[in-house]
Write a structure and sequence with these properties.
Layout (H helix, E strand, L loop, with lengths): L1 E2 L6 E2 L20 E2 L6 E2 L4 H13 L14
C-alpha cells in the first residue's frame, strides 16, 4: 500500500500507475500518481519499506514513530 504525501489517501501500486499517454516519458519513468488528488511522486525505495515495516512490527503494528512520552 502507498500513502499519498499530499492528501493521505492510501492506494495500491496498480491504482497509482502514473504514466499517462500525454507524458513524453510514458514508457517507464517510475512515478506514482495518487488517484484521489493527482499528486505525482517517486515510489519509496525498498530499503525505506524494509525499515518502516520492521519498525511497525517492533512497535506492535502502529506507524506512529514519535518517541515514547514525547510529542510529535
Amino acid at each position: 500500500m502507498i500513502d499519498c504525501g499530499m492528501c493521505g489517501h492510501t492506494f495500491t501500486r496498480e491504482e497509482g500507475a502514473a504514466c499517462s499517454k500525454g507524458c513524453p516519458m510514458a514508457q517507464g519513468c517510475g512515478m506514482v500518481t495518487c488517484p484521489s488528488c493527482g499528486y505525482e511522486f517517486p515510489p519509496e525505495s525498498k530499503i525505506v519499506n524494509f525499515v518502516t515495516n520492521s519498525l511497525v512490527r517492533l512497535r506492535g503494528g502502529t506507524r506512529n514513530f514519535a518517541p515514547a512520552g514525547g510529542k510529535r
